[in-house]
Amino acid sequence: MSGLPDRKEAQVKRLLEGPYPPVPTGLAAGAAARGDRLLRRRRALRMFGWAVLFAAAVAFVVWASLTRPWLTPPSGISPPLQGW
């Protein structure tokens, strides 16, 4: 079992020393462009989310100011007259 780590270590050393495979010429530019697109999409989604949240808050404030849900509704029955 002691020979197993030595064999793996030798394989790793060969991989690190050996000839490196050729990298496609447009790989870095393509990766940068894709990353830029992802960042722009994420930023646009975040802005859209904040806009929806702001619109919902404005709609709630307008609804609350028009309907005034914190007030008790007027009673349909008037209190009895006393003292006349």
Q: Whole-number average pLDDT? A: 89
Number of E strands: 0
Low-pLDDT runs:
none
Shape, principal axes of CA atoms: rod-shaped
Number of separate helices: 2
Helical/strand content category: mainly alpha
Q: In angstroms, what separates the terminal alpha carbons? A: 110 Å
Helix content: 55-70%
Rg, Å, rounded: 35 Å
| β-sheet strand percentage | under 5%
Mind describing the biggest β-sheet?
none
N-to-C series of helices and strands: HH
Structural features:
84 residues; 0% strand; 67% helix; rod-shaped; single chain; mainly alpha
Task: Give a written overview of the molecule.
Keywords: Membrane, Transmembrane, Transmembrane helix. With about 80 residues, the chain is mainly alpha-helical. The protein has a domain at about 35-65. It has two helices and no strands. It has helices spanning about 5-15, 25-65. It is rod-shaped, with a radius of gyration of 35 Å. The chain starts with a helix and ends in a 17-residue tail after the last helix.
SSE map:
Elements: H1 3-17, H2 27-67
Keywords: Membrane, Transmembrane, Transmembrane helix
Transmembrane segments: 47-66
